[in-house]
Amino acid sequence: MNITEKDSYVTDSNRPRPLLSRIFLSAKHMFYPQFVWYVCIHSGRAAISFYSGAKWVKGSLAVMKSLENVGVKFEINGINNISSFDGPAVFIGNHMSALETFVLPCIIQPLKPVTFVVKKSLIDTPVFKYLMRSRNPITVGRTNPREDLKAVLEEGIKKLQAGISIIIFPQSTRSVVFKPEEFNTLGVKLALRAGVPVVPFALKTDAWGIGKRLKDFGPIDRNKKVHFTFGEPMMVKGRGTSEHETIIRFIQEKLQAWDKEESHHREHRES
Length: 271
Hints:
The chain contains nine helices and eight strands. By secondary structure, it is of the alpha/beta class. The protein has helices at residues 19-23, 27-48, 53-69, 80-83, 99-108, 128-134, 145-161, 186-194, 241-270; strands at 9-10, 74-77, 90-93, 114-119, 138-140, 165-168, 198-204, 226-230. Helix 6 (128-134) links the parallel strand 4 and strand 5 (138-140). The mean pLDDT is 91. The chain is globular and about 55 Å long.
């Protein structure tokens, strides 16, 4: 499965679900064993040998297919905006769940080498740390904005100059509700300093819920479609205020449209 061949990808509505998923097990109980297996296998490989971008894409696709197998549907748009220009970029978007961390690689990495800006705690998480470290991410503490800015600018410019794009979630934490006041300008400042384009993206990934006890193991709701949309690349000018506002509007407009669509489908199911 190559989801980057066209400008959009939509899960086949006739995609068959495994028998156990259809007659017995919930989406959550079908998906998480597969997910844990993926993390263990790929982290183990990353711990003992070189873990290539191609292997990362393969593992990312495995997670996406596992979600589709339990009934979660995807709609991805604007893929051509990732490859419509030469060189690296800073990808800036909202952060809603663990899903995007695992699925974004199979959308962007086949078109542009990429890594993340992540919390320092992620590279020390048992098992998962080997997989995360293999991608050589930029780490931030999320407690000292000045230190975070310095780390993102210094490390980010080096990676961008080496041709590696960067995914950054400017929110301080995952949230189903998008709050513009919590959406910082780190990504815009990095793109400005490095002289590379910004590619805004909006996502709706609350089909993978946030768990009460274990944050990454929440409910899986197959009635909620997963959305990713990538906007047109843009160069940052001046102080980047206009571009930052454009990214926020882009995310808000997409979220509003997706919420309306979901509400319509919910009303249709209940009628």
